[in-house]
């Protein structure tokens, strides 16, 4: 038995400090007058905040970099722009005389509000925003102050995707039964199931076969079959319907089935499929919309943004 439940939940790592909280600890680490690298900061700050190994290795969703490394990097950038630290070489930091002076004043914290009081920092901050201080992204100073640019980009992307998922889910609910069945065929083909459009198009639209709407090939070679139930329902799918579908799989001696609906399932339905000796995948309306977005079914790419970084290897010969 195998239980599959698709979910888009994002795990929260509460012990990872935001990049402003890291500013003062970085300056304190540098107070010994020695040069320190990113890995040293990561280890010492992880110990200071009692971070677990999982939190130390947690990655940004859309950027191949750990969250803590990203936040340390941006904290160092802000401290450097404020003149509190220097970078004698790539990836290396050292406290400046101005930084020592700040430490001697024993600040309770160092954050953007604190740095804004230092000469020159506000000018850099305004310049780095490229005149966009009045745009929607920067309307909430608290939001931008707590997040690094990569986190803001990822947050905005997630918000847009979440809204698109909701809109798409509502759109699916309003389509006709025949259009919904065709949509399911298009999605399954895009996900790599079935053979040709003509072959896959024959799997749905059948009625009265023990709760099974059709059968589709698991792959283009047809090495295994997957039984499909596709229901455009408004209300929550009762667990009895899921039981009927599982019973149909048993009568057909089938091992795999997918139940797709425009609505949702009760907890008892997930508990039931977990208890049976069959692989049954339950896909609700929101998950269906997520799969459509991932596989470009019923959506199109509006904009593409490229995030580029310095190619350090290119400058190695300089």
What do you see in this structure?
By secondary structure, this protein is of the alpha/beta class. The chain folds into 2 domains: 8-147, Arc Repressor Mutant, subunit A (Orthogonal Bundle), CATH 1.10.10; 176-294, 3-Layer(aba) Sandwich (Trna Endonuclease, Chain: A, domain 1), CATH 3.40.1350. The chain has helices spanning 23-30, 38-48, 53-56, 67-81, 97-104, 112-115, 121-128, 141-146, 149-174, 177-190, 197-200, 239-251, 267-275, 285-294, and strands at residues 3-4, 36-37, 85-86, 92-95, 214-217, 225-231, 256-261, 279-283. The strands form 2 sheets. A 5-stranded mixed beta sheet has the order 1-8-7-6-5. It has a 3-stranded antiparallel beta sheet with strand order 2-4-3. It starts with a strand and ends in a 24-residue tail after the last helix. The model is unreliable at 1-11 and 129-144 (pLDDT under 50).
Summarize this, please?
This protein has 318 residues and is α/β, with parallel strands linked by helices. The protein has two domains: 8-147, Arc Repressor Mutant, subunit A (Orthogonal Bundle); 176-294, Trna Endonuclease, Chain: A, domain 1. 44% of the residues lie in helices and 10% in strands.
């Amino acid at each position: 038995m195998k239980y599959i439940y698709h979910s888009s939940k994002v795990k929260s790592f509460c012990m990872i400090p935001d990049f402003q909280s890291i500013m003062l600890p970085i300056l304190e680490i540098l107070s010994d007058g020695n040069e320190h690298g990113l890995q040293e900061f990561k280890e010492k700050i992880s110990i200071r905040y009692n971070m677990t190994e999982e939190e130390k290795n947690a990655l940004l969703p859309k950027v191949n970099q750990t969250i803590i490394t990203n936040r340390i990097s941006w904290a160092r950038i802000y401290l450097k722009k404020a003149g509190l630290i220097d970078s004698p070489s790539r990836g290396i930091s050292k406290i400046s005389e101005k930084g020592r002076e700040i430490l001697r004043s024993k600040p309770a914290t160092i954050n953007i509000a604190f740095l804004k009081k230092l000469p020159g920092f506000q000018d850099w901050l305004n310049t780095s925003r490229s005149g966009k201080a009045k745009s929607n992204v920067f309307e909430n100073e608290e939001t931008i102050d707590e997040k690094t640019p990569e986190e803001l980009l990822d947050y905005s992307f997630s918000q847009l995707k979440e809204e698109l998922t909701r809109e798409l889910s509502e759109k699916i609910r309003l389509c006709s039964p025949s259009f919904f069945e065709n949509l399911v065929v298009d999605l399954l083909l895009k996900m790599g199931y079935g053979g040709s459009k003509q072959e896959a198009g024959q799997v749905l639209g059948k009625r009265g076969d023990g709760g099974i709407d059709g059968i589709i090939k698991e792959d283009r070679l047809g090495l295994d079959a997957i039984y499909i139930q596709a229901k455009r329902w408004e209300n929550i799918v009762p667990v009895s319907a899921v039981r009927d579908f599982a019973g149909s799989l048993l009568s057909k001696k089938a091992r795999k089935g997918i139940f797709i609906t425009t609505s949702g399932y009760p907890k008892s339905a997930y508990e039931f499929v977990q208890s049976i000796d069959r692989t049954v995948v339950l896909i609700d309306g929101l998950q269906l919309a997520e799969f459509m977005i991932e596989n470009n079914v019923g959506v199109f790419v509006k904009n593409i943004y490229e995030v580029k970084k310095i190619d350090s290897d290119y400058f190695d010969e300089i």
